C-alpha cells in the first residue's frame, strides 16, 4: 500500500501539508488569505439596495455573453448578480495602467518613483484617487445598464436620492473595499492580492462554463462526447504550454573574482542570472484586457452600439487589437521590472562579471540585448495564447464561456498566479529546511538564489 501511495505521490503530498501546518507564519498567512477570499466571494452575492434579487434571472443570463460576459468573468459573477462588487478590480487596474504610463512619460512622477518607500506610498495614493475618478464615471453607466436590462418590477425604489445615489455609493465603496482586500492579502497574506482576487473570480465561473459545454455536447449534434474529449486534450496541452512559457528562463553565466582573506578564499564560483522569457508575468494580459474594456465604457455598457459593437469579443478587430496590446505591454512591463544597468552595477560592486564581457556599460548592453531577443518570441507566444479563445470559439465550436479558458486572460492568470503562490509557499518551506513542493525540492524553472 505504501508503494502505491509513493507512486501516486499522495504520501509526499500529505507530508508537504504537514510541513506547511508546522510553520506558524505560513499557516497564518494561508488562513488569512483564505478568509479574505471568502469575504470577497460572499460580497459577490450581496445585491445593490433597491433591487429585487429574484428578478435578476434574465439579466444574469444575458450578462454571460459578449462584452458583459467578459466583465462578469473578471468579477466572479458579481456583475451579473448586480452586486456591490459588480465592477470588481478593473477600475483599479485601469488607474494603475495610467499611473504607470505617467511614471515613464512625466518627469515629476519619475522623481516620485525614485523616492523609495515614500514615493511608492504617494504613487499608491494617486492610483486610489484616479480609481475614484474612474468609478464616478463607470458607476452611473452600470446603473443605466441595469435600468435598460431589468424589468420595472425589479426596482423596489426608483428615486434619485432613494435609489441612484445609494447605489452609486455602494458600488464605489464595494470596489474600494475589494482594493483594500487585495492590499491586505499582499501585505499579510500569500501572493499578489489583486491577482488572487481575479483568479478566484475566474475559477468561480469555471463550473458553470464546463456545465454549459457538457450540455451542448450531449444535447446537440455538435460532435458529441468524442469532440469533448478532444477539447479536454487540447486544453491540457495549452495548460502545459502556458506553464512552460511562465517558467522558461535564459541563464546568463556570472563569474565572481577570487578573494583571499587570511587563510580563507572567497568567491571564484560561477553562478547564473535567470532571465525569464516572460519577465512581465500575467500583467500584460491584465493591462491589455483592461484597455479592451474601454469601448464598452464609452458605449455605456451597451454592446450594440458604438465601438463596443465593432470590437465584440472573439471578433476580428478585437482579436487583432488584443494581440498587439499584449505584445506592447509585455515590452512595457519588462522594461519596468528588468533594469540591466542596475544589474550590471550590482555585479561590478560584488566583483562579478560575465565571461568575455567587460564590466559596467558593456555588461548592461549585453543583458539588454539578451532581454530584447528573448522578449520578442516570448511576447508573440504570450499574444498567441491570449487570442486562443477566439480560435476555440470560431473553429472548434466551443461555447463562449468555456472558450475563455482555452488560453487568453483566464488561463494565463490562473497559471501565473498559481505558480507565483506555490513559489512563495516553497520559499517558506525551503527557508526552514523542509522539502519543497516538487520531488527535487524546487519548482521547475527556479534557480538557486
Would you mind describing this structure in some detail?
The model is unreliable at 445-449 (pLDDT under 50). The radius of gyration is 24 Å and the shape is globular. Helix content is 68%, strand content 5%. The chain has 20 helices and 5 strands. With 449 residues, the chain is mainly alpha-helical. The longest helix has 33 residues, at 117-149. Helix 6 packs across helix 7 (107-113), helix 6 (90-105) crosses helix 8 and helix 9 (160-188) packs across helix 10 (193-219). The protein folds into 2 domains: 24-203, Preprotein translocase SecY subunit (Orthogonal Bundle); 223-449, SecY subunit domain (Preprotein translocase SecY subunit, Orthogonal Bundle).
Q: Which structural class should the secondary elements be placed in?
A: mainly alpha
Q: What share of residues is helical?
A: 55-70%
Q: Low-confidence runs (pLDDT<50, min 5 residues)?
A: 445-449
Number of individual domains: 2
Shape, per Cα inertia axes: globular
By DSSP, the count of extended strands is: 5
Assembly status: single chain
Q: In CATH terms, what is the fold-level topology of the largest domain?
A: Preprotein translocase SecY subunit
Q: What CATH architecture of the largest domain do you see?
A: Orthogonal Bundle
Largest sheet: 3 strands, antiparallel
Task: State which percent range the strand residues make up.
Answer: 5-15%
Averaging pLDDT over every residue, what do you get?
79
Distance between the termini: 38 Å
Q: Identify the strand order in the major beta sheet.
A: 4-1-5
Order of helices and strands: HHHHHHHHHHHEEEEHHHHHEHHHH
> Helix segment count?
20
- In CATH terms, the superfamily of the largest domain is SecY subunit domain
Query: What is the name of the CATH class of the largest domain?
Result: Mainly Alpha
Computed over alpha carbons, the radius of gyration is: 24 Å
Amino acid at each position: 500500500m505504501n508503494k502505491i501511495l509513493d507512486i501516486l505521490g499522495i504520501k509526499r503530498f500529505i507530508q508537504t501539508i504537514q510541513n506547511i501546518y508546522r510553520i506558524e507564519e505560513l499557516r497564518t498567512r494561508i488562513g488569512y488569505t483564505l478568509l479574505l477570499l471568502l469575504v470577497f466571494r460572499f460580497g459577490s452575492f450581496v445585491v445593490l439596495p433597491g433591487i429585487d434579487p429574484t428578478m435578476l434571472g434574465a439579466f444574469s443570463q444575458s450578462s454571460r455573453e459578449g462584452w458583459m460576459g467578459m466583465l462578469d468573468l473578471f468579477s466572479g459573477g458579481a456583475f451579473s448578480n448586480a452586486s456591490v462588487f459588480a465592477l470588481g478590480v478593473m477600475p483599479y487596474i485601469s488607474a494603475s495602467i495610467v499611473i504607470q504610463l505617467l511614471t515613464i512619460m512625466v518627469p515629476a512622477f519619475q522623481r516620485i518613483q525614485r523616492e523609495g518607500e515614500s514615493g511608492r506610498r504617494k504613487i499608491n495614493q494617486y492610483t486610489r484617487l484616479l480609481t475614484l475618478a474612474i468609478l464616478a464615471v463607470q458607476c452611473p453607466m452600470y446603473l443605466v445598464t441595469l435600468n435598460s436590462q431589468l424589468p420595472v418590477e425589479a426596482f423596489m425604489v426608483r428615486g434619485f436620492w432613494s435609489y441612484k445615489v445609494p447605489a452609486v455609493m455602494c458600488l464605489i465603496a464595494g470596489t474600494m473595499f475589494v482594493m483594500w482586500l487585495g492590499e491586505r492579502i499582499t501585505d499579510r497574506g500569500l501572493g499578489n492580492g489583486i491577482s488572487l482576487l481575479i483568479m478566484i473570480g475566474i475559477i468561480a465561473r469555471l463550473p458553470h462554463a464546463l456545465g454549459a459545454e457538457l450540455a451542448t455536447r450531449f444535447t446537440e449534434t455538435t460532435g458529441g462526447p468524442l469532440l469533448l474529449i478532444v477539447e479536454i486534450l487540447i486544453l491540457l496541452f495549452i495548460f502545459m504550454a502556458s506553464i512552460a512559457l511562465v517558467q522558461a528562463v535564459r541563464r546568463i553565466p556570472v563569474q565572481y573574482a577570487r578573494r583571499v582573506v587570511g587563510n580563507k578564499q572567497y568567491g571564484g564560483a560561477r553562478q547564473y542570472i535567470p532571465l525569464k522569457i516572460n519577465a512581465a508575468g500575467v500583467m500584460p494580459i491584465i493591462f491589455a484586457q483592461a484597455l479592451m474594456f474601454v469601448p464598452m465604457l464609452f458605449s455605456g455598457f451597451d454592446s450594440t452600439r458604438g465601438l463596443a459593437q465593432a470590437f465584440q469579443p472573439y471578433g476580428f478587430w478585437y482579436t487583432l487589437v488584443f494581440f498587439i496590446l499584449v505584445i506592447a505591454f509585455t515590452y512595457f512591463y519588462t522594461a519596468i521590472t528588468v533594469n540591466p544597468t542596475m544589474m550590471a552595477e550590482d555585479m561590478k560592486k560584488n566583483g562579478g562579471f560575465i565571461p568575455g564581457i567587460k564590466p559596467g556599460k558593456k555588461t548592461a548592453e549585453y543583458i539588454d540585448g539578451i532581454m530584447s531577443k528573448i522578449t520578442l518570441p516570448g511576447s508573440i507566444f504570450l499574444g498567441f495564447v491570449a487570442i486562443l479563445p477566439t480560435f476555440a470559439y470560431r473553429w472548434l465550436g466551443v461555447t463562449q464561456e468555456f472558450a475563455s479558458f482555452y488560453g487568453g486572460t483566464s488561463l494565463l492568470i490562473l497559471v501565473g498566479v498559481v505558480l507565483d503562490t506555490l513559489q512563495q509557499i516553497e520559499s517558506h518551506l525551503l527557508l526552514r529546511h523542509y522539502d519543497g513542493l516538487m520531488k527535487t525540492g524546487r519548482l521547475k524553472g527556479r534557480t538557486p538564489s
